[in-house]
Automatic annotation (TrEMBL):
Annotated coiled-coil segments of the chain: none
PANTHER family: LD23868P, TESTIS-SPECIFIC PROTEIN PBS13 T-COMPLEX 11
The protein's name in its UniProt record: T-complex protein 11-like protein 1
Renumbered residue ranges of the record's region Disordered: 1-97
Residue ranges, compositional bias (Pro residues): 78-88
Biased composition (Polar residues): 47-68
Taxonomic lineage from the root: Eukaryota, Metazoa, Ecdysozoa, Arthropoda, Chelicerata
Recorded family membership: Belongs to the TCP11 family.
UniProt organism field: Oppiella nova
GO biological process: signal transduction
Transmembrane segments: none
Length: 569
Protein backbone atom coordinates (compact mmCIF):
# COMPACT_ATOMS: atom_id res chain seq x y z
CA UNK A 1 0.00 0.00 0.00
CA UNK A 2 1.60 3.34 -1.04
CA UNK A 3 1.85 6.46 1.14
CA UNK A 4 -1.01 8.34 -0.58
CA UNK A 5 -3.42 5.47 0.05
CA UNK A 6 -2.41 5.40 3.72
CA UNK A 7 -2.99 9.12 4.06
CA UNK A 8 -6.39 8.83 2.41
CA UNK A 9 -7.48 6.12 4.83
CA UNK A 10 -6.19 8.11 7.78
CA UNK A 11 -8.25 11.11 6.68
CA UNK A 12 -11.37 8.96 6.40
CA UNK A 13 -10.77 7.49 9.84
CA UNK A 14 -10.15 10.92 11.35
CA UNK A 15 -13.40 12.18 9.82
CA UNK A 16 -15.29 9.25 11.35
CA UNK A 17 -13.78 10.02 14.74
CA UNK A 18 -14.82 13.65 14.49
CA UNK A 19 -18.40 12.65 13.63
CA UNK A 20 -18.57 10.41 16.68
CA UNK A 21 -17.17 13.13 18.89
CA UNK A 22 -19.66 15.68 17.58
CA UNK A 23 -22.53 13.33 18.36
CA UNK A 24 -21.32 13.08 21.95
CA UNK A 25 -21.44 16.82 22.57
CA UNK A 26 -24.03 17.61 25.28
CA UNK A 27 -27.03 19.67 24.22
CA UNK A 28 -28.11 22.63 26.32
CA UNK A 29 -31.64 22.62 27.62
CA UNK A 30 -33.74 23.90 30.51
CA UNK A 31 -35.62 21.35 32.53
CA UNK A 32 -36.71 23.46 35.48
CA UNK A 33 -34.65 21.52 38.01
CA UNK A 34 -33.24 23.36 41.06
CA UNK A 35 -29.67 23.19 39.77
CA UNK A 36 -29.82 23.05 35.99
CA UNK A 37 -26.18 22.53 35.02
CA UNK A 38 -26.51 24.12 31.60
CA UNK A 39 -27.79 27.51 32.76
CA UNK A 40 -25.29 30.10 31.61
CA UNK A 41 -24.11 32.99 33.71
CA UNK A 42 -25.50 36.25 32.25
CA UNK A 43 -22.74 38.31 30.72
CA UNK A 44 -22.37 41.97 30.27
CA UNK A 45 -22.74 43.20 26.70
CA UNK A 46 -19.36 44.87 26.89
CA UNK A 47 -17.45 41.86 28.08
CA UNK A 48 -15.36 40.29 25.35
CA UNK A 49 -14.76 37.10 27.32
CA UNK A 50 -16.22 35.75 30.54
CA UNK A 51 -14.32 34.20 33.44
CA UNK A 52 -15.17 30.63 32.46
CA UNK A 53 -14.19 31.33 28.83
CA UNK A 54 -10.84 32.66 30.07
CA UNK A 55 -10.37 29.45 32.03
CA UNK A 56 -11.03 27.23 29.04
CA UNK A 57 -9.13 29.07 26.27
CA UNK A 58 -7.22 26.56 24.12
CA UNK A 59 -6.09 26.18 20.50
CA UNK A 60 -6.70 23.04 18.44
CA UNK A 61 -4.62 22.48 15.30
CA UNK A 62 -4.16 19.76 12.72
CA UNK A 63 -1.58 17.27 13.99
CA UNK A 64 -0.29 16.85 10.43
CA UNK A 65 0.85 20.52 10.40
CA UNK A 66 2.32 20.76 13.90
CA UNK A 67 6.03 20.74 13.01
CA UNK A 68 8.10 23.70 14.28
CA UNK A 69 9.22 24.68 10.78
CA UNK A 70 5.66 24.73 9.47
CA UNK A 71 6.24 21.85 6.98
CA UNK A 72 3.65 19.16 6.52
CA UNK A 73 4.51 15.89 8.27
CA UNK A 74 3.19 12.41 7.79
CA UNK A 75 1.21 10.88 10.65
CA UNK A 76 3.34 8.73 12.93
CA UNK A 77 0.86 5.88 13.04
CA UNK A 78 -2.37 5.05 11.19
CA UNK A 79 -4.28 5.45 14.47
CA UNK A 80 -3.05 8.92 15.38
CA UNK A 81 -5.89 10.97 16.92
CA UNK A 82 -7.11 13.84 14.74
CA UNK A 83 -6.87 16.62 17.37
CA UNK A 84 -3.67 18.13 18.72
CA UNK A 85 -3.75 20.97 21.28
CA UNK A 86 -0.91 23.47 21.46
CA UNK A 87 0.06 26.17 23.90
CA UNK A 88 -1.17 29.63 22.77
CA UNK A 89 1.49 32.32 22.23
CA UNK A 90 2.09 34.95 24.89
CA UNK A 91 0.12 37.60 23.02
CA UNK A 92 -2.89 35.31 22.92
CA UNK A 93 -2.45 34.47 26.63
CA UNK A 94 -2.57 38.14 27.55
CA UNK A 95 -5.61 38.77 25.39
CA UNK A 96 -7.64 35.83 26.60
CA UNK A 97 -6.45 35.30 30.15
CA UNK A 98 -5.10 31.79 29.46
CA UNK A 99 -3.11 30.38 32.36
CA UNK A 100 0.62 30.71 31.88
CA UNK A 101 3.04 32.78 29.85
CA UNK A 102 4.59 32.56 26.41
CA UNK A 103 6.47 29.36 27.19
CA UNK A 104 7.73 27.24 24.31
CA UNK A 105 5.16 24.51 23.57
CA UNK A 106 5.93 20.97 24.61
CA UNK A 107 5.48 18.10 22.15
CA UNK A 108 1.83 17.66 21.07
CA UNK A 109 -0.49 15.71 23.36
CA UNK A 110 -3.72 14.11 22.32
CA UNK A 111 -7.11 14.95 23.79
CA UNK A 112 -10.61 14.23 22.57
CA UNK A 113 -13.24 16.87 21.91
CA UNK A 114 -15.44 15.10 24.46
CA UNK A 115 -12.82 15.68 27.17
CA UNK A 116 -12.63 19.37 26.25
CA UNK A 117 -16.42 19.73 26.41
CA UNK A 118 -16.54 17.92 29.74
CA UNK A 119 -13.92 20.24 31.20
CA UNK A 120 -15.75 23.30 29.85
CA UNK A 121 -19.04 22.16 31.36
CA UNK A 122 -17.35 21.51 34.70
CA UNK A 123 -15.90 25.02 34.78
CA UNK A 124 -19.26 26.49 33.78
CA UNK A 125 -20.99 24.72 36.66
CA UNK A 126 -18.23 25.86 39.03
CA UNK A 127 -18.77 29.46 37.88
CA UNK A 128 -22.50 29.20 38.56
CA UNK A 129 -22.00 27.71 42.03
CA UNK A 130 -19.39 30.35 42.84
CA UNK A 131 -21.63 33.23 41.77
CA UNK A 132 -24.51 31.95 43.89
CA UNK A 133 -22.24 31.41 46.90
CA UNK A 134 -20.50 34.80 46.98
CA UNK A 135 -23.22 37.09 45.58
CA UNK A 136 -26.47 37.19 47.55
CA UNK A 137 -28.03 39.32 44.81
CA UNK A 138 -27.07 37.01 41.97
CA UNK A 139 -29.84 36.12 39.56
CA UNK A 140 -30.14 34.98 35.98
CA UNK A 141 -31.07 37.62 33.45
CA UNK A 142 -32.06 37.49 29.83
CA UNK A 143 -29.20 38.61 27.62
CA UNK A 144 -30.32 40.65 24.64
CA UNK A 145 -28.18 40.99 21.54
CA UNK A 146 -26.98 44.56 20.84
CA UNK A 147 -29.16 46.72 18.62
CA UNK A 148 -28.34 46.51 14.90
CA UNK A 149 -26.23 43.39 15.49
CA UNK A 150 -26.40 40.50 13.04
CA UNK A 151 -27.57 38.16 15.80
CA UNK A 152 -30.53 40.37 16.66
CA UNK A 153 -31.51 40.89 13.02
CA UNK A 154 -31.40 37.16 12.29
CA UNK A 155 -33.45 36.42 15.40
CA UNK A 156 -36.08 39.00 14.47
CA UNK A 157 -36.31 37.69 10.90
CA UNK A 158 -36.68 34.08 12.05
CA UNK A 159 -39.34 34.94 14.64
CA UNK A 160 -41.29 37.02 12.13
CA UNK A 161 -41.14 34.19 9.60
CA UNK A 162 -42.51 31.72 12.16
CA UNK A 163 -45.49 33.88 13.11
CA UNK A 164 -46.17 34.85 9.49
CA UNK A 165 -46.36 31.16 8.56
CA UNK A 166 -48.73 30.50 11.46
CA UNK A 167 -51.01 33.35 10.41
CA UNK A 168 -50.91 32.26 6.78
CA UNK A 169 -51.81 28.66 7.62
CA UNK A 170 -54.68 29.69 9.91
CA UNK A 171 -56.10 31.83 7.08
CA UNK A 172 -56.06 28.95 4.59
CA UNK A 173 -59.29 27.25 3.57
CA UNK A 174 -59.58 24.65 4.95
CA UNK A 175 -57.47 25.78 7.91
CA UNK A 176 -53.97 24.31 8.09
CA UNK A 177 -53.07 23.49 11.73
CA UNK A 178 -49.56 22.09 11.15
CA UNK A 179 -47.71 25.10 12.61
CA UNK A 180 -50.35 25.57 15.29
CA UNK A 181 -49.97 21.98 16.54
CA UNK A 182 -46.21 22.41 16.75
CA UNK A 183 -46.78 25.58 18.78
CA UNK A 184 -49.23 23.92 21.18
CA UNK A 185 -46.82 21.05 21.72
CA UNK A 186 -44.04 23.49 22.67
CA UNK A 187 -46.38 25.43 24.98
CA UNK A 188 -47.37 22.21 26.74
CA UNK A 189 -43.73 21.21 27.23
CA UNK A 190 -42.90 24.65 28.62
CA UNK A 191 -45.79 24.52 31.08
CA UNK A 192 -44.76 21.08 32.32
CA UNK A 193 -41.16 22.26 32.76
CA UNK A 194 -42.36 24.98 35.14
CA UNK A 195 -44.04 22.55 37.54
CA UNK A 196 -42.56 21.57 40.87
CA UNK A 197 -42.55 17.93 42.05
CA UNK A 198 -45.59 18.54 44.28
CA UNK A 199 -47.70 19.78 41.34
CA UNK A 200 -48.94 16.28 40.50
CA UNK A 201 -52.61 17.22 40.09
CA UNK A 202 -51.80 20.20 37.90
CA UNK A 203 -49.51 18.06 35.79
CA UNK A 204 -52.31 15.54 35.27
CA UNK A 205 -54.73 18.35 34.43
CA UNK A 206 -52.38 19.79 31.79
CA UNK A 207 -51.85 16.35 30.26
CA UNK A 208 -55.60 15.82 29.99
CA UNK A 209 -56.65 19.23 28.68
CA UNK A 210 -53.70 19.74 26.33
CA UNK A 211 -54.07 16.25 24.87
CA UNK A 212 -52.41 16.72 21.49
CA UNK A 213 -54.14 13.71 19.92
CA UNK A 214 -57.54 15.04 20.95
CA UNK A 215 -56.66 18.54 19.75
CA UNK A 216 -55.55 17.12 16.40
CA UNK A 217 -58.89 15.31 16.04
CA UNK A 218 -60.71 18.56 16.75
CA UNK A 219 -58.59 20.28 14.10
CA UNK A 220 -59.38 17.56 11.54
CA UNK A 221 -63.10 17.94 12.25
CA UNK A 222 -62.94 21.73 12.04
CA UNK A 223 -64.06 22.33 15.64
CA UNK A 224 -60.75 23.44 17.20
CA UNK A 225 -61.23 26.47 19.47
CA UNK A 226 -57.82 28.11 19.78
CA UNK A 227 -59.10 30.81 22.11
CA UNK A 228 -60.29 28.21 24.63
CA UNK A 229 -56.87 26.58 24.85
CA UNK A 230 -55.16 29.97 24.99
CA UNK A 231 -57.29 31.03 27.95
CA UNK A 232 -56.56 27.75 29.73
CA UNK A 233 -52.81 28.24 29.23
CA UNK A 234 -53.10 31.75 30.66
CA UNK A 235 -55.01 30.44 33.67
CA UNK A 236 -52.19 27.98 34.39
CA UNK A 237 -49.62 30.75 33.97
CA UNK A 238 -51.56 32.89 36.45
CA UNK A 239 -51.26 30.10 39.04
CA UNK A 240 -47.53 29.63 38.49
CA UNK A 241 -46.13 33.07 37.70
CA UNK A 242 -44.74 35.72 40.00
CA UNK A 243 -47.11 38.57 40.95
CA UNK A 244 -45.11 40.95 38.78
CA UNK A 245 -46.41 39.09 35.68
CA UNK A 246 -50.11 39.45 36.57
CA UNK A 247 -50.55 42.65 34.57
CA UNK A 248 -49.16 41.03 31.43
CA UNK A 249 -51.51 38.08 31.85
CA UNK A 250 -54.50 40.43 32.15
CA UNK A 251 -53.46 42.12 28.91
CA UNK A 252 -53.24 38.78 27.09
CA UNK A 253 -56.65 37.61 28.32
CA UNK A 254 -58.16 40.63 26.56
CA UNK A 255 -56.41 39.87 23.24
CA UNK A 256 -58.71 38.39 20.58
CA UNK A 257 -56.33 37.95 17.65
CA UNK A 258 -54.90 34.41 17.78
CA UNK A 259 -51.38 35.11 16.49
CA UNK A 260 -50.55 38.07 18.80
CA UNK A 261 -52.14 36.12 21.66
CA UNK A 262 -49.95 33.04 21.25
CA UNK A 263 -46.90 35.15 20.53
CA UNK A 264 -47.48 36.91 23.85
CA UNK A 265 -47.94 33.55 25.58
CA UNK A 266 -44.60 32.29 24.27
CA UNK A 267 -42.83 35.46 25.43
CA UNK A 268 -44.52 35.13 28.83
CA UNK A 269 -43.40 31.51 29.18
CA UNK A 270 -39.80 32.47 28.39
CA UNK A 271 -39.87 35.06 31.18
CA UNK A 272 -41.52 32.60 33.57
CA UNK A 273 -38.79 30.03 32.96
CA UNK A 274 -36.24 32.63 34.00
CA UNK A 275 -38.34 33.52 37.06
CA UNK A 276 -38.57 29.85 38.01
CA UNK A 277 -34.82 29.35 37.63
CA UNK A 278 -34.17 32.34 39.91
CA UNK A 279 -36.73 30.97 42.38
CA UNK A 280 -34.84 27.66 42.50
CA UNK A 281 -31.56 29.52 43.00
CA UNK A 282 -33.05 31.50 45.89
CA UNK A 283 -34.39 28.33 47.50
CA UNK A 284 -31.14 26.41 47.04
CA UNK A 285 -28.75 29.25 47.94
CA UNK A 286 -28.19 28.21 51.61
CA UNK A 287 -27.47 24.62 50.55
CA UNK A 288 -25.21 25.75 47.69
CA UNK A 289 -23.29 28.10 49.97
CA UNK A 290 -22.80 25.26 52.44
CA UNK A 291 -21.44 22.90 49.78
CA UNK A 292 -19.81 25.37 47.38
CA UNK A 293 -16.32 25.24 48.90
CA UNK A 294 -16.02 21.49 48.52
CA UNK A 295 -17.68 21.59 45.09
CA UNK A 296 -15.38 24.34 43.75
CA UNK A 297 -12.32 22.51 45.03
CA UNK A 298 -13.38 19.39 43.18
CA UNK A 299 -14.19 21.18 39.92
CA UNK A 300 -11.01 23.25 39.97
CA UNK A 301 -8.92 20.13 40.47
CA UNK A 302 -10.73 18.47 37.57
CA UNK A 303 -9.98 21.51 35.45
CA UNK A 304 -6.28 21.47 36.32
CA UNK A 305 -6.15 17.76 35.48
CA UNK A 306 -7.81 18.43 32.12
CA UNK A 307 -5.47 21.32 31.38
CA UNK A 308 -2.43 19.19 32.12
CA UNK A 309 -3.49 17.01 29.19
CA UNK A 310 -3.60 20.04 26.90
CA UNK A 311 -0.31 21.70 27.82
CA UNK A 312 2.72 21.37 30.06
CA UNK A 313 2.33 24.98 31.28
CA UNK A 314 1.67 25.14 35.03
CA UNK A 315 -2.01 25.97 35.55
CA UNK A 316 -1.13 27.95 38.69
CA UNK A 317 1.90 29.81 37.34
CA UNK A 318 0.36 33.28 37.77
CA UNK A 319 -0.80 32.49 41.30
CA UNK A 320 2.68 31.35 42.30
CA UNK A 321 4.22 34.51 40.82
CA UNK A 322 1.64 36.66 42.63
CA UNK A 323 2.39 35.07 46.03
CA UNK A 324 6.16 35.10 45.45
CA UNK A 325 6.12 38.81 44.60
CA UNK A 326 4.22 39.66 47.78
CA UNK A 327 6.35 37.36 49.94
CA UNK A 328 9.46 39.19 48.73
CA UNK A 329 7.87 42.60 49.41
CA UNK A 330 7.40 42.02 53.16
CA UNK A 331 9.78 41.19 55.99
CA UNK A 332 8.97 37.97 57.85
CA UNK A 333 12.55 37.12 58.79
CA UNK A 334 11.83 37.60 62.50
CA UNK A 335 8.60 35.58 62.46
CA UNK A 336 8.57 31.93 63.47
CA UNK A 337 4.82 31.32 63.66
CA UNK A 338 3.73 29.80 60.34
CA UNK A 339 0.18 31.09 60.82
CA UNK A 340 1.35 34.70 61.14
CA UNK A 341 3.72 34.34 58.18
CA UNK A 342 0.98 32.87 56.00
CA UNK A 343 -1.52 35.53 56.98
CA UNK A 344 0.93 38.35 56.23
CA UNK A 345 1.78 36.98 52.79
CA UNK A 346 -1.83 36.38 51.80
CA UNK A 347 -3.21 39.65 53.18
CA UNK A 348 -0.49 41.60 51.40
CA UNK A 349 -1.26 39.71 48.19
CA UNK A 350 -5.00 40.32 48.46
CA UNK A 351 -4.45 44.04 49.13
CA UNK A 352 -2.34 44.25 45.98
CA UNK A 353 -5.47 43.37 44.01
CA UNK A 354 -7.07 46.64 45.17
CA UNK A 355 -4.31 48.68 43.52
CA UNK A 356 -3.69 46.27 40.64
CA UNK A 357 -2.19 47.82 37.50
CA UNK A 358 -3.09 45.75 34.46
CA UNK A 359 -0.37 47.46 32.45
CA UNK A 360 2.44 46.62 34.87
CA UNK A 361 1.64 43.46 36.81
CA UNK A 362 1.65 39.98 35.33
CA UNK A 363 -1.45 38.05 34.45
CA UNK A 364 -4.16 37.78 37.09
CA UNK A 365 -3.90 34.92 39.64
CA UNK A 366 -5.78 31.90 38.32
CA UNK A 367 -7.39 31.23 41.69
CA UNK A 368 -9.11 34.64 41.56
CA UNK A 369 -10.24 34.78 37.94
CA UNK A 370 -13.86 34.10 38.89
CA UNK A 371 -13.78 37.14 41.19
CA UNK A 372 -11.76 39.42 38.91
CA UNK A 373 -14.76 41.53 37.89
CA UNK A 374 -16.00 41.89 41.48
CA UNK A 375 -12.53 42.86 42.70
CA UNK A 376 -12.20 45.34 39.84
CA UNK A 377 -15.43 47.01 40.98
CA UNK A 378 -14.13 47.20 44.56
CA UNK A 379 -10.84 48.61 43.25
CA UNK A 380 -12.79 51.39 41.49
CA UNK A 381 -14.61 52.14 44.75
CA UNK A 382 -11.30 52.34 46.61
CA UNK A 383 -10.04 54.90 44.10
CA UNK A 384 -13.27 56.90 44.32
CA UNK A 385 -13.12 57.01 48.12
CA UNK A 386 -9.43 57.93 47.90
CA UNK A 387 -10.25 60.94 45.74
CA UNK A 388 -13.20 62.00 47.91
CA UNK A 389 -11.23 61.55 51.13
CA UNK A 390 -8.38 63.64 49.73
CA UNK A 391 -10.80 66.42 48.76
CA UNK A 392 -12.25 66.44 52.27
CA UNK A 393 -8.81 66.77 53.87
CA UNK A 394 -7.99 69.76 51.66
CA UNK A 395 -11.41 71.28 52.39
CA UNK A 396 -11.00 70.87 56.16
CA UNK A 397 -7.54 72.42 56.05
CA UNK A 398 -8.94 75.41 54.17
CA UNK A 399 -12.24 75.89 56.01
CA UNK A 400 -10.90 75.18 59.48
CA UNK A 401 -12.55 73.49 62.52
CA UNK A 402 -15.75 75.51 62.17
CA UNK A 403 -16.51 73.87 58.82
CA UNK A 404 -15.25 70.45 59.88
CA UNK A 405 -17.79 70.29 62.70
CA UNK A 406 -20.84 70.87 60.47
CA UNK A 407 -22.42 67.49 59.67
CA UNK A 408 -24.86 69.05 57.22
CA UNK A 409 -21.96 70.52 55.25
CA UNK A 410 -20.20 67.14 55.17
CA UNK A 411 -23.28 65.31 53.91
CA UNK A 412 -24.07 67.88 51.24
CA UNK A 413 -20.50 68.04 49.93
CA UNK A 414 -20.22 64.25 49.97
CA UNK A 415 -23.42 63.86 47.93
CA UNK A 416 -22.12 66.27 45.31
CA UNK A 417 -18.70 64.59 45.16
CA UNK A 418 -20.28 61.14 44.77
CA UNK A 419 -22.04 62.45 41.66
CA UNK A 420 -19.11 64.39 40.18
CA UNK A 421 -16.66 61.48 40.55
CA UNK A 422 -17.99 58.53 38.56
CA UNK A 423 -18.08 54.97 39.90
CA UNK A 424 -15.67 53.89 37.14
CA UNK A 425 -13.18 56.66 37.80
CA UNK A 426 -10.37 54.10 37.53
CA UNK A 427 -11.00 54.07 33.77
CA UNK A 428 -10.33 57.81 33.41
CA UNK A 429 -7.29 58.97 31.52
CA UNK A 430 -5.01 61.45 33.30
CA UNK A 431 -6.53 64.33 31.31
CA UNK A 432 -10.09 63.20 32.05
CA UNK A 433 -9.40 62.86 35.76
CA UNK A 434 -7.80 66.31 35.82
CA UNK A 435 -10.93 67.76 34.21
CA UNK A 436 -13.13 66.04 36.81
CA UNK A 437 -11.02 67.30 39.70
CA UNK A 438 -11.16 70.82 38.26
CA UNK A 439 -14.96 70.62 38.39
CA UNK A 440 -14.70 69.28 41.95
CA UNK A 441 -12.53 72.23 43.02
CA UNK A 442 -15.11 74.69 41.69
CA UNK A 443 -17.90 72.83 43.50
CA UNK A 444 -16.00 72.88 46.80
CA UNK A 445 -15.37 76.61 46.41
CA UNK A 446 -19.10 77.25 45.98
CA UNK A 447 -19.98 74.97 48.91
CA UNK A 448 -17.58 76.80 51.24
CA UNK A 449 -18.88 80.17 50.09
CA UNK A 450 -22.51 79.14 50.71
CA UNK A 451 -21.61 77.65 54.11
CA UNK A 452 -19.86 80.85 55.21
CA UNK A 453 -22.86 82.96 54.20
CA UNK A 454 -25.35 80.64 55.92
CA UNK A 455 -23.50 80.44 59.24
CA UNK A 456 -22.03 83.95 59.31
CA UNK A 457 -18.40 82.87 58.96
CA UNK A 458 -15.81 85.27 57.63
CA UNK A 459 -15.33 84.78 53.88
CA UNK A 460 -12.12 83.06 52.79
CA UNK A 461 -9.49 85.27 51.20
CA UNK A 462 -8.76 84.77 47.52
CA UNK A 463 -5.25 83.36 48.02
CA UNK A 464 -6.47 80.54 50.29
CA UNK A 465 -9.26 79.69 47.87
CA UNK A 466 -6.79 79.62 44.97
CA UNK A 467 -4.41 77.40 46.93
CA UNK A 468 -7.26 75.04 47.80
CA UNK A 469 -8.35 74.74 44.17
CA UNK A 470 -4.80 74.01 43.06
CA UNK A 471 -4.37 71.30 45.71
CA UNK A 472 -7.66 69.64 44.73
CA UNK A 473 -6.77 69.62 41.02
CA UNK A 474 -3.34 68.14 41.83
CA UNK A 475 -5.07 65.11 43.39
CA UNK A 476 -5.53 63.76 39.84
CA UNK A 477 -1.83 62.84 39.80
CA UNK A 478 -1.22 59.24 40.80
CA UNK A 479 1.88 60.19 42.82
CA UNK A 480 0.18 63.02 44.72
CA UNK A 481 1.37 62.78 48.34
CA UNK A 482 -2.00 63.51 49.91
CA UNK A 483 -3.71 60.97 47.66
CA UNK A 484 -1.11 58.36 48.58
CA UNK A 485 -1.68 58.99 52.29
CA UNK A 486 -5.45 58.54 51.97
CA UNK A 487 -5.04 55.41 49.84
CA UNK A 488 -2.68 53.91 52.43
CA UNK A 489 -5.18 54.63 55.21
CA UNK A 490 -7.95 52.88 53.26
CA UNK A 491 -5.77 49.85 52.56
CA UNK A 492 -4.69 49.68 56.21
CA UNK A 493 -8.34 49.67 57.22
CA UNK A 494 -9.11 46.82 54.80
CA UNK A 495 -6.01 45.01 56.10
CA UNK A 496 -7.37 45.21 59.66
CA UNK A 497 -10.69 43.85 58.41
CA UNK A 498 -8.96 40.86 56.77
CA UNK A 499 -6.67 40.20 59.74
CA UNK A 500 -9.14 40.72 62.57
CA UNK A 501 -9.89 37.41 64.34
CA UNK A 502 -13.23 38.74 65.62
CA UNK A 503 -16.14 40.73 64.26
CA UNK A 504 -15.55 43.69 66.57
CA UNK A 505 -16.11 47.18 65.10
CA UNK A 506 -12.97 48.81 63.71
CA UNK A 507 -12.03 52.46 63.98
CA UNK A 508 -12.45 54.49 60.78
CA UNK A 509 -9.17 56.10 59.65
CA UNK A 510 -8.57 59.77 60.41
CA UNK A 511 -10.20 62.11 57.89
CA UNK A 512 -12.41 59.43 56.33
CA UNK A 513 -15.44 59.71 58.61
CA UNK A 514 -17.58 61.29 55.82
CA UNK A 515 -17.27 58.03 53.84
CA UNK A 516 -17.33 55.59 56.76
CA UNK A 517 -20.43 53.79 55.45
CA UNK A 518 -18.95 53.24 51.99
CA UNK A 519 -15.62 52.21 53.51
CA UNK A 520 -17.32 49.64 55.73
CA UNK A 521 -19.16 48.23 52.71
CA UNK A 522 -15.89 47.85 50.82
CA UNK A 523 -14.34 46.02 53.77
CA UNK A 524 -17.32 43.66 54.05
CA UNK A 525 -17.51 42.92 50.32
CA UNK A 526 -13.79 42.25 50.03
CA UNK A 527 -13.77 40.13 53.18
CA UNK A 528 -16.51 37.92 51.73
CA UNK A 529 -14.54 37.33 48.54
CA UNK A 530 -11.26 36.73 50.35
CA UNK A 531 -12.78 34.40 52.94
CA UNK A 532 -14.37 32.20 50.30
CA UNK A 533 -11.21 32.21 48.19
CA UNK A 534 -8.98 31.23 51.11
CA UNK A 535 -11.25 28.33 51.98
CA UNK A 536 -11.49 26.96 48.43
CA UNK A 537 -7.80 27.22 47.56
CA UNK A 538 -6.27 26.67 51.02
CA UNK A 539 -4.43 23.53 49.91
CA UNK A 540 -2.79 25.26 46.94
CA UNK A 541 -1.84 28.36 48.96
CA UNK A 542 -0.39 26.21 51.76
CA UNK A 543 1.80 24.26 49.32
CA UNK A 544 2.99 27.43 47.56
CA UNK A 545 3.85 29.25 50.80
CA UNK A 546 5.69 26.18 52.09
CA UNK A 547 7.84 26.25 48.94
CA UNK A 548 8.47 29.99 49.36
CA UNK A 549 9.37 30.17 53.05
CA UNK A 550 12.58 28.36 54.02
CA UNK A 551 12.25 25.95 56.91
CA UNK A 552 8.52 25.24 56.77
CA UNK A 553 7.82 21.51 57.09
CA UNK A 554 5.08 19.35 55.61
CA UNK A 555 3.46 19.26 59.04
CA UNK A 556 3.32 23.04 59.08
CA UNK A 557 1.83 22.96 55.57
CA UNK A 558 -1.14 21.00 56.85
CA UNK A 559 -1.45 23.47 59.75
CA UNK A 560 -1.45 26.37 57.28
CA UNK A 561 -4.15 24.69 55.20
CA UNK A 562 -6.31 24.08 58.27
CA UNK A 563 -5.88 27.66 59.49
CA UNK A 564 -6.79 29.07 56.08
CA UNK A 565 -9.98 27.04 55.96
CA UNK A 566 -11.01 27.91 59.53
CA UNK A 567 -10.23 31.63 59.18
CA UNK A 568 -12.52 31.87 56.16
CA UNK A 569 -15.65 31.02 58.16
Amino acid sequence: MDESTKESKNCEKSGDQMNVLKEKQPKEHFNGSPMTPKIKIPRSRNESTSSDENLMSATIVDSNNSSPDGKRQKPQTPDSPPLTPTTPPMSQNIATGVFGYGITPSPPRFVSLEEIMKAANGVENMVLAHEIAVDNNFKLEKVEAPDNSLEKRVKEVMHKAFWDILESQLNESPTNYKQAMSLLKEIKENLLSLLLPQHTRLQQEIQEILDLDLILQQADNGILDFQRYAQYVLSVCARLCAPVRDERIRELTQTDDVVPLFRGIMELLDVMKLDMANFHIQQMRPHIQLKSIEYERKKFKEFLDSQSKLTSVDGLECTKTWLKRNYESIDVSNETNCKIITNKILVNAYLELLVWDNGVQELYPETLLLDAKRISEIRAKVMKLTLIGSVFLVTYATGGPSVQGLQEFKDKLKDHLMVLIADKCDEYSVAELKSVMTSVSLQVREELKACAEEHGFAPLDASRVQSMETQIVDIHCGDNRLRKVVERRILEFVERVLSSPTAQPLQIPTGLSPVKQELSQIGGQFMRIVGHNRAVFSQYYADMITDLVPGLSACETRTIERDLTISSH
